[in-house]
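Quick illustration, no need to memorize.
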Amino acid sequence: MSEPAGPSSHVEPWLREILRCPACRSELRDAEGPTGPEMVCTNESCGLAYRVDEGVPVLLVDEARHPA
């Protein structure tokens, strides 16, 4: 039996390494957002958060959550 999934296990590691923020092309990091898992842009001036639905990142700028 596998261990419970943490934020870093929502997206496959090989996929996480190649994904970039569609708005600014910076790297993304795993995070736990207010409504579930997210991938957040590491660029401080961008900082968009993209939801992850069933292990699939939704990298649509129009649907991203803006930093508070």
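The first strand starts at residue 28 and ends at 33.
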